[in-house]
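Duplicate of #3305? Posting structure anyway:
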């Protein structure tokens, strides 16, 4: 239950089960529901964070994992993730997220043709994909300071 409180979902135990005065639950944790119809997007994201923090995988890939959360909770969760020792890669559009990462991979589409972008006509490009992309790895701590 403490992880549910950490992600601010402690109230689910009373809303979807029988939370006893002593804090124990009789059926709340055994409730089977279609959570996508029951929980808001923010609640679904918080539940996913709770599962992540409980499972403690070696690596987590996060795609807009906090897009429906307020910045205060987002900060709390990324700090908890950093403290957990879980290695993670995340995709997000909020610039404030950079402070929780050690490096930033920025994808950019170069101007010109694929051959021009690779620098030579008869040379294998340094990058190759259906939509030519260049990448740049940046120090996230330096970016966050700017």
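Output from current build:
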């Amino acid at each position: 239950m403490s992880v549910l409180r950490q992600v601010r979902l402690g109230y689910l135990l009373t809303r979807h089960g029988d939370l006893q005065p002593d804090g124990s639950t009789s059926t709340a944790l055994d409730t089977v529901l279609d959570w996508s119809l029951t929980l808001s997007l923010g609640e679904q994201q918080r539940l996913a964070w709770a599962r992540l923090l409980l499972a403690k995988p070696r690596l987590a890939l996060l795609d807009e994992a906090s897009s429906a959360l307020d910045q205060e909770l987002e900060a709390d969760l990324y700090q908890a993730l950093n403290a957990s020792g879980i290695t993670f890669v995340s995709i997000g559009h909020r610039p404030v997220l950079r402070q929780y990462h050690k490096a930033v991979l920025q994808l950019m589409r170069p101007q010109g043709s694929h051959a021009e972008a690779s620098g030579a006509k008869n040379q294998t490009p340094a990058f190759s994909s259906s939509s030519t992309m260049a990448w740049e790895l940046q120090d996230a701590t330096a970016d966050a300071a700017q």
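Confirmed duplicate; merging threads. Strands lie at 59-63, 87-91, 103-108, 134-139. Residues 124-134 have pLDDT under 50 and may be disordered.
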